[in-house]
Design brief:
This protein is of the alpha+beta class. The protein is built from 3 helices and 8 strands, in the order βααββββββαβ. The relative contact order is 0.17.
Length: 153
């Protein structure tokens, strides 16, 4: 088995958009506080409800990746912590499929002991990872969930 590929979020524009929103909200907080000065705690709390999820999403977009090299899987979470595992260490795989009238999305959540990572359809090389999991992991530990979301007329 000599396959080597990396699965990550490939949309650089999405990364730039998220970073632009973060900068917009930080400057919005500062502008509002320095302009009026009324209720800076309230203003900061309101803007932070949008800012904190944006920062977490930006970390997810920028840092998460999965690299497959032969039987070894290396994955990094959104905090930059890297984990290495063998294909034989996988304890459970949850394969979620969502079908709508607009298309089909898939998401694989791989559990390795107490650690887990996921790969979604919109990530670059996700199709290679889906094939890799289906050919190298026993069907006994793959749990398939299909969710049909269609509009009835």
């Amino acid at each position: 088995m000599n396959k080597k590929f990396t699965v990550n979020v490939a949309i650089k524009e999405l990364r730039r958009l998220c970073l632009g929103c973060i900068v917009f909200f930080v400057f919005g907080i500062l502008w509002t506080i320095f302009k009026d000065g009324k209720n800076p705690v309230l203003i900061t709390c309101i803007f932070s409800t949008v800012l904190i999820p944006l920062i977490l999403y930006y970390l997810y977009i920028s840092l998460v990746y999965v690299t497959v090299s032969g039987n070894t899987i290396v994955f990094r979470n959104m905090f930059g912590i890297t984990h290495t595992a063998d294909i034989k260490e996988i304890t459970k795989v949850v394969w979620k499929t969502g079908e709508t009238q607009y298309g089909k999305t898939e998401r694989i959540i791989v559990y390795i002991g107490s650690k887990k990572f996921s790969v979604e359809t919109l990530m670059k090389n996700s199709d290679k990872f889906f094939d890799y999991i289906s050919s190298n992991v026993s069907e006994d530990i793959i749990v398939r969930e299909v969710k049909n979301i269609t509009k009835n007329k």
